[in-house]
Structure formats: C-alpha cells, structure tokens
Amino acid sequence: MSETFETYSDYDFLPNNEDVIIENDLLLNVSHNIPIKPFIAAIMCIVVSIIIVVTLIGNLMVCLAVFMVRKLKQPPNFLLVNLAVADFSVGFFVMPIAFLSLFENRWILGETLCRLWTSADLTLCTASILNLCFITVDRYLIITKPLRYCAQRTSKRIFIYILLVWCGAFLVSVTPLIFLPWKMDSKVCQVPQNQFYQIYATFFTFYGPTAVMVILYWKMLKAAKRLAEKEERSTSLYLEDYDRKNSSSKKLQKTNSYLITSENDLSSSESGSKFFYNRRSSAFLNVVRVPLISHTRRNSQQNHHSVKENKARITLGVIMSTFIVCWLPFFIMALVKSFKLIDAPVWLDNLILWLGYSNSMLNPLIYCKYNSEFRVPFREMLCCRFRTLKSVVRHESFTKKYGPIKPQKIKENEVEEKPVTQSIKKSSIQETTIIPTLSKKN
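Structure for G_PROTEIN_RECEP_F1_2 domain-containing protein, as requested:
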C-alpha cells in the first residue's frame, strides 16, 4: 500500500500535465476492468440469455401465426409483423454482441464492427418504436373514422406505413456515420456524445413518437366513451305498422321471442314451437319480422365489433405503457450524459440498456396475454402442433362466437325402429300429396 501511494505522489511532481491525464485514463481503464463476482455473473448470464431466447422465439411465433392463420392475414396485422421483425432482429443482431460486451466490460471487436453494431442498434430499436407509433395512428383512425378509414385501410396503405418506419429509422442511424466524427474512448463502443445529435436522435426516436401515442390514445378513449354513450341511448327499437290505417308506431323491446302482431292473425300451439297462420297473416309477418331480425343481427355484429375494438385498445394501452417504462430511463440518461450532468457508473448504463432491450421480448408476451387471436396459435406452436393449427383455430373461433356444440341425446323410448323401405314409401306419398294441392291453389 505504501509503494502505491509513493507512485501516486510521484505523479504530482511531473512537469507535464498531459502525462497526468494519460495516466489517469489508464487508471480509469483498469477500474473499468474490475472482475465480476461469479454469483452475480451467473445471474446476469441466466437473465440475459432468457431475454434473448424469449425475444427470438416470441417474435418468430408472431410472424408464423399471421402467415399460417387465415383469420390473421389482415392488413393491420402486417404492422404487427413488421414490429416482430424489428424486435426479432434486435434479438438476433444486437443483443448477442451487447451480451459479449457486458461480460468483457469493454469493446474488443474493433472500430469497424463498433460502427456497424451501433448503426444496427439505432436502426432496429428506432424501427420498433416507430412501429408502435404507426400502430397507434392506425387504431385511432379506425375508431374515430370507421367508415372512411375502413375503405382506405388497404395493404398498400399499410406498406406505406412500413416504408415510413424504416426510412425514419435509417435517417437516425446513418447521420452519425456520415456527418459526425467517430472516436472510441476507453474501449467503450457508443454513439458520438454530440449534444445536437443527441437532442435530434432522442426527440425523433422517443420523445416525439411517445407524445403522439399518448395524445392519440387519450383521444381514442374519449371517442370510445362517446360511442358507448350513443349505443346506450339507442337500445330501443321502433317499427312502423304495416297497415296504413293504424299509423301509430309501437315501441318494442329487444327479446328473444317472436314478434306477434295480434291474436287473430297468429296462433301458436302450447305444446310445440310450430306456428299456424293463414296467407294474409304470413305476408304481414314477413314485413314485420325482417326488420327485427336484421336489427338484432346488426346489433350483434356491432357488439362483437365493439368488444373486439375494446380488446385491441387494452392491448395497445399495455404495449404503450410497457414501452414507456422500458425506454424512458435510457433516453433520459442519453440526454444527461451528452450534457455531462452526471457521471453514471457502468452497471447503471448496462441495466438501463438491457431494460430497453427487454421491450422487444415483452411485446409478443403481451399479444399472448391480451389477444385471444394470437393466444391459440401460440399455444399450438409451443406444443409443436403445426399440422392441426388451422383446424384448432377455426374450432376455437366458432366456439367463441356461437358457443360449444352440445350433442343431442335421444331417449330410447322415443325412438321407433322403422325399415328403410317404409320410410322411403312414406316420404314419396307425402310428396305426391303435397304437389297437387299446391297446383290447385295456384
């Protein structure tokens, strides 16, 4: 200990101050290379490996689910595929090299690979963030302008969104390669800490898209609330009477029974569900029943659509919240470091960086949790049941829409075994008796 203090005291009497700066940099590098304890290194290795593996498998399953299930082959889901491609690329190209740099505690791959890696990091992470922004814009337009935007929501328009995402990502990543000088200080690979570039990159990559997403999501919630209030006010149904003599309208409530206009026109048997009516009453019944059936079908379709949109809003809200929690510390630290307001330790930089990377892992998990359309394909693919994937998805969709199919049990006492020939003769006799009666009436 005394010898080391003597060497430090010798530095104070050196005539050239630049030599002191060089030695301090060397001491700083030595302090960066402090070995990690084995227990902490094992935990870090397990956690980071889980993040990488789940990112790759989860985002790959999102792409396979959209391309294998016909129900998911819709233009809006192409934005989800683009998001999954960006997140998968982060897990494949960016995370493994960051994993190596994390355990080496310094950059060992040279300046050229450092430039390529940082450019890929900026491009892919920016593309992932801009994808979320365009998904929010798409969801906002379909809620606030459903009729107009539904006709414009084509594959061509979605591909324009995707093109804008990648063009914006390349603008952020190419700028430091072309216009800014590149220096590797203390064996650390990072983008140039130019204040103007950091303001430009953080605003274009995070703060701008986040502000757009928060504002649109707030407007989305207000529009959904107004729509729900309108649907509550229009719960009753008005139908005009077919007879012009009775011009008054009758207010009808939504029921599961048939609409009966009068006791004389229509009579039903108590034992069964068959209705016996004359030709005049049947004509009247056709006029009255068709609007009621069409209205109930329209209401069921609107309810199904509103439930689907509500689930999409919940999923989008969870994705946005997760995105802000994961990336906000990183972009705050980027501005703070560029203005040299704080000297953050290395472990804090690594923790914030991997918290941002984990957003690419969480997106497919959110789909699996909150979106039933992705949950069933994910379950089948995890069980390696690719051959029966389509049939299982169709069965789940039918069961969810119409309910489970209940097998009808027939009592043995009610079943009478009859020969096939006897039933054929009886059916032929009925056909011959019905046809002449119809011809006589006509």
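Residues 1-32, 236-243, 248-297, 414-442 have pLDDT under 50 and may be disordered.
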